[in-house]
């Protein structure tokens, strides 16, 4: 089946997570993604947190499927020559090196634009160009702190907290993918390539939009009515950490279900949405609350919302998280069991939709990965195993016109 990005050639100069997540997604959708890696070692994630000695780590295999791997020392003159050839015939170059690394290698935006004016050059950095921290190297958790996620995540009596979700890495990669696709559509109109830059700080902040909303509300009125601190606690002049409170104006909390004493994930997320109040009261066997002035409105409920949650927990005490959701769904109440990675890995619906995909790898056998979260009516992305280091070096060089002898010479001089 042909794919929308068939024919788009991408030089994938990325490593770790932010860049690879972006190029992997473009590869799923049909782009020819050539991952350029240092001979001998390759992407550092190939050997990070290995579970099988000598075999590419899951960290690598789960972020580099559907790609080809070319080993190339781009600091050596012969390596630069190969790269220049590749640049001349590619549509996109994606990189997430530390600040200035590409310039130091001799491939500034000006040089790349001169080599191929139609090429889109896409970069991830920790901070945006011109920012007072734009010289810093950045990893995931650093970005979560820089983008406002850490100061607003966790409990008010604990320290700033990092989310397990890759808000700094994969999220930035997704922003970059949108930027690249936009630039490709732009190029169809203008015939010109352009530079696309996304910073991890900006991408995290984009997801913390509602916290900037809350800062402005706090500045104006001095409190935030949907936070647990209201109305009995104190607010300072910055958005506090709100524990498990809902961010959209509907109070919600993580509530204990049957077995919570021994199972750390025997919980559901329960939302007390305004218009669902009546069904909530019926579902939990408290019909008398429907018209009780102490419970009837969101304002009336807020001062004793934790007492309400406690009553709901009493109702949940003899129900597993799955049984509870099965009751609540009949009343149209937004809720979900707190699912573990083990439960997600074995979820039949996620397997059927391809969101959890089982993939074959030449050396490790089969492994699970997260497939495309984007579903199309005319295309089902097929996830293939990640490439071994340099698996496609010969194929790519031959495609650039190198003879067998020339490739052998490049190998001997450790350029590839
Ligand atoms: N051949 C030769 N040299 C290569 C090469 C290749 N194929 N690929 C990379 N290199 C060189 C680079 O040119 C650079 O050399 P230089 O610093 O001497 O100029 C060197 O490898 C190291 O690159 P760098 O990206 O700085 O690696 P690092 O391990 O020191 O830092 C990060 C890692 C992730 C912190 C850094 O790349 C970074 O901040 N990236 C931007 C933000 C980001 O994406 N963070 C990670 C999110 S998962």
How would you describe this structure to a colleague?
It is elongated and about 85 Å long. The protein has a six-stranded parallel β-sheet with strand order 3-2-1-4-5-6. Strands 7-8-9 form a three-stranded antiparallel β-sheet, covered by helices on one side. The protein has two domains: 7-204 and 345-411, 3-Layer(aba) Sandwich (Rossmann fold), CATH 3.40.50.10540; 250-332, formyl-coa transferase, domain 3 (2-Layer Sandwich). Helix content is 35%, strand content 13%. The longest helix has 21 residues, at 170-190. Helix 6 packs across helix 8. The chain is an alpha/beta fold and 416 residues long. Helix 1 links the parallel strand 1 and strand 2. The model has no long low-confidence stretch (mean pLDDT 96). Bound molecules: coenzyme A. Residues 16-19, 36-38, 72-75, 96-98, 101, 104-105, 124-126, 137-139, 169 line the site of coenzyme A.
List strands and helices in order, with pairings.
Elements: E1 9-13, H1 18-28, E2 32-37, H2 58-61, E3 68-71, H3 77-88, E4 92-95, H4 101-104, H5 109-115, E5 120-125, H6 140-146, H7 170-190, E6 195-199, H8 200-207, H9 209-221, E7 252-256, E8 267-271, H10 277-283, H11 298-301, H12 305-316, H13 321-328, E9 335-337, H14 341-345, H15 348-353, E10 356-361, E11 365-370, H16 393-399, H17 404-412
Parallel strand pairs: 1-2, 1-4, 2-3, 4-5, 5-6
Antiparallel strand pairs: 7-8, 8-9, 10-11
Helix pairs in contact: 1-7, 6-8
The chain binds coenzyme A.
């Amino acid at each position: 089946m042909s794919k929308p990005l068939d024919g788009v050639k991408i030089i994938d100069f990325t490593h770790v997570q932010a860049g690879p997540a972006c190029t992997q997604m473009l590869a799923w959708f049909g782009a020819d993604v050539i991952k350029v890696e240092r001979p001998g070692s390759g992407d550092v994630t190939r050997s990070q947190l290995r579970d099988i000695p000598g075999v590419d780590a899951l960290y690598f295999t789960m972020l580099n499927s559907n790609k080809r791997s070319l080993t190339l020392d781009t600091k050596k003159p012969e390596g630069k020559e190969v790269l220049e050839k590749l640049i001349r015939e590619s549509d996109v170059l994606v990189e997430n090196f530390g600040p200035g690394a590409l310039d130091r290698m001799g491939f500034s935006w000006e040089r790349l634009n001169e080599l191929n004016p139609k090429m889109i050059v896409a970069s991830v950095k920790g901070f945006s160009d011109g920012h007072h921290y734009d010289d810093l190297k950045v990893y995931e958790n650093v970005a979560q702190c820089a983008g406002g996620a850490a100061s607003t995540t966790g409990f008010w009596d604990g320290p700033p907290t990092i989310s397990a979700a890759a808000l700094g890495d994969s999220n930035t990669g997704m922003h970059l993918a949108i930027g690249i696709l936009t630039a490709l559509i732009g190029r169809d109109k203008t015939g010109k390539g352009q530079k696309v830059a996304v910073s991890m700080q900006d991408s995290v902040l984009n997801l913390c939009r509602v916290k900037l909303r809350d800062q402005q509300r706090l500045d104006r009125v001095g409190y935030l009515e949907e936070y647990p601190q209201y109305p009995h606690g104190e607010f300072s002049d910055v958005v506090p950490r709100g524990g498990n409170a809902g961010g959209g104006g509907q109070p919600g909390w993580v509530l204990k279900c049957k077995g919570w004493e021994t199972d750390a994930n025997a919980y559901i997320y329960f939302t007390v949405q305004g218009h669902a109040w009546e069904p909530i009261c019926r579902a939990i066997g408290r019909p008398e609350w429907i018209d009780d002035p102490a419970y009837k409105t969101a304002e009336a409920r807020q001062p004793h919302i934790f007492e309400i949650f406690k009553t709901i927990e009493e109702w949940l005490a003899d129900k597993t998280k799955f049984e509870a959701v099965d009751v609540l769904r009949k009343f149209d109440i937004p809720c979900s069991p707190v699912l573990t990675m083990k439960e997600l890995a074995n979820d039949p619906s996620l397997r059927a939709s391809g969101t959890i995909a089982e993939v074959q790898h030449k050396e490790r056998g089969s492994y699970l990965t997260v497939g495309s979260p984007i579903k199309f009516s005319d295309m089902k992305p097929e996830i293939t195993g990640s490439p071994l280091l340099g698996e496609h070096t010969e194929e790519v060089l031959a495609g650039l016109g190198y003879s067998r002898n020339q490739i052998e010479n490049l190998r001997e001089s450790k350029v590839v």
